[in-house]
Each structure stands twice: as structure tokens, then as C-alpha cells.
Amino acid sequence: MRFKVIPGQFAIAQLPAGSAVPAWATQGAFSSVTATTEELSVVCEESAVPEGTTAQKGFACLQLEGPFPLDSVGILHKFLGPLVRERIPIFAISTFNTDFILIHAERKKLALEVLQRAGNELIS
Fold this sequence. Notes:
This protein has 124 residues and is α+β, with helices and mostly antiparallel strands. It is 17% helix and 40% strand.
């Protein structure tokens, strides 16, 4: 599978359920907003997250080269298997076209090595 690294450092933020999507949530090279009955979850560049916001920072973002048909089976399983075996935690986001994987930045180098050893291709 082919994948690339999205430049920057990312954060995963949590806002109360029913919150309006703040302007800072959709700035930058990559962002994702998910609203549920329990929370508003925002993934964005960590520099955009205001002080005092509940968030975990320091993530690298990998993007699988898509698009993938929506009836595809096992794409994430195949890509994430090597990371699971190395006990590298992930945070996955799926879109209509592809998947994004967030990994703690301090584990990025190891994750890239593991993924490439497993036959995945890092592209620019």
C-alpha cells in the first residue's frame, strides 16, 4: 500500500456535544470534525487549538493513497497490522476517498520503518 506523511503536528481535541464547529477547527493542511451525541471531536494542526481546550497534542498524520471503493474490505487491517504487532497506538479517520492514521510523533520514525518493512511504500 502507498502512503504519505501530511506535514505538521496535529492535535485531537474534544468539545462538548452540541458545540458549533469553531473556525480554528478547519484551518490548515488537514482537519476532521466529528459530531456525536457525546462530543464534538476535532483533529487539526496543533498550533490552531486554543489554550484551555481539552486536547492531546503531538501527533503525526499518515494518509493512505486512495481513493478506495467504499465496499473494499480489509484496507485498514492490512495497513495497521504491522503497527499493532509493534504495539504502536493509532487514531484512525476514514473519509469518502481514503484513510488517515495519527501516530504519536515520538513513534513516527519507528512506525515508518515498520510500515516500509511490511512492504508499504512511503511516497512524497
